[in-house]
Specification:
The protein is α/β, with parallel strands linked by helices. It contains 13 helices and 18 strands. The chain folds into 4 domains: 4-117, Rossmann fold, CATH 3.40.50; 125-247, Transcription Regulator spoIIAA (2-Layer Sandwich); 260-265 and 284-367, Transcription Regulator spoIIAA (2-Layer Sandwich); 372-426, Beta Barrel (OB fold (Dihydrolipoamide Acetyltransferase, E2P)). The chain has helices at residues 18-33, 57-73, 84-88, 90-94, 111-117, 162-166, 174-186, 206-216, 234-241, 259-265, 271-284, 303-315, 343-366, and strands spanning 9-14, 37-38, 47-52, 78-83, 101-102, 144-148, 150-151, 170-171, 191-195, 221-224, 249-251, 289-296, 320-325, 372-381, 386-391, 396-400, 409-418, 421-426. The relative contact order is 0.08. Pfam families: Radical_SAM, UPF0004.
Length: 427
Amino acid sequence: MQQTDRLKTFAIATLGCKVNQFESADMIEQLRNAGWKQVSFNEAADLYLVNSCTVTGKSDAESRKLLRRARRANPDATVVATGCYAQVSPEALQALAEVDQVLGNREKVDILRHITLGADQVSSLTEQLEGPSLKLTSFADHTRAFLQIQSGCENGCSYCIVPIARGPNRSVAVTDVEEAVRRLAGEGYREVVLTGIHLGAYQSGLTGLLRRLDATGAVERLRLGSLEPNELSDELLELIAGSSRICPHLHLPLQSGSDTVLHRMRRRYDAALYRQVVEKVAQRLPDAFLAADVIAGFPGETEQEFRETCDLIAALPLADLHVFPYSRRPGTVAAAMPDQLPPAVIKERTTILNRLAAVKLKLFRQRFIGSHLEVLGQRHDPATGLISGLSRNYLEIDCPGTADDINRLRMVRVTALSRNRLVGEPA
């Protein structure tokens, strides 16, 4: 392992959720402010950071793969594993020959000091009371800023490792969130995405916070991360419907459409409530992008229970699904349940749900052909002369433009769906 005073270049790879993306951006800013130069993860660097996820066994495997790739890229580099996999299973990462240092989630907020010390450090999160750090002022290579306003979860779902990886619920003060949004808007960001591990548990009240942010008008767009379906109140829905800033885009985890499976999962709603919430949103926000998480192959899931899930999804006005094959996570209640399904069954059900998701997304996209949508430019491709951007209702649209259109809001008329991508022209 190198001496840290010789480290000049760094590369970072991020797995998992928007919270991890926010924390990676924060670590990037810490290192850049200290004079370090960021390079691509595929290039030779003096320091490699892997900000890991541990929601599934596949996430763990991907983290190990990235750590090995880093070591191959520069055998003399310092390779650091951090994030949720490091928090939950530090011993597994310490046993890898490719890894020099293991740091937990709490250590991210002062990453440079810990790298300088050179020692493994994974602090307990069980007694952590302070909310996430909001020191971040900019996002590298992004036109949208993620802002973590809450961390931790106390729901206790039987399959979920997140409470172990992220600790108890804690939130950022309203005034600190307001100041952070103003700061990011001042840096030129047109859209701020409010994120959290359990966003609906924001301790000062999510609806009140959104109302204050909406009223200040500091930023053109506000977008929400994932919300539990039983936490989307009528008051919050009406606020979104009446706002020109809060984007009509909601991610409402389903996990299963079977009441018996939901009970074994220890979810706090049933299929009827989920149906009621989604239909209410679709009625009040007819153009909203509604997405759901769903788990395929939960322990004991019968063919009938799986059909109930497919039937519910098919009947609902959802735009997309995030499908997760069930992954047995040591330390969770579900890991000890009987009737763990064979991998082949889980894979087959995952495939069926992904096909259903593809149909849903295609139908949703097709609805907007001929529509005029406000698009925030994100990426420019000089080879095609196209700029890719995001509408308020989370549709990615390709349109003729130049690099000057990045981070600009433009009206676009959607003309076609080509190769699963919406295309349009300036309106």
